[in-house]
Amino acid sequence: MKNNDIKIKYDLEADVLSWEISKKAKIDYASEMGNIIVHFTENHLPVLIEVLEASKIIKQSEKTLERAREFAFAR
After folding, report:
1. How far is residue 54's CA from residue 72's CA, in Å, rounded to a whole number?
2. pLDDT for 32-62, tens place per residue?
3. C-alpha pair distances (Å), 31 with each of 13, 35, 46, 47, 64
4. Are 60 and 72 in contact (CB under 8 A)?
5. Nearest Cα residue to 47 out of 11, 29, 20
6. β-strands 29-33, 7-11 pairing
7. Distance of CA 70 to the CA centre of its chain
8. N or C, which end of the chain has less CB nearby within 10 Å?
């Protein structure tokens, strides 16, 4: 897989972050894990990853990173 096959898009209205790994592969099924949906080929290779309510997850990640920085500097 070449890096230029990968596309990352954000839909502001739907608040969905999409990570398209391959345009050429055909999606066979999807698996939902909380706010993350992963679409796979029939050979179980990931093709598309969608993050629902992406802004909330990004905000939570920012808070977690900030706490980790504070902990690292406190040492």
Report:
1. 27
2. 999 999 999 999 999 999 999 999 988 888 8
3. 23, 11, 10, 12, 26
4. no
5. 20
6. unpaired
7. 26
8. C
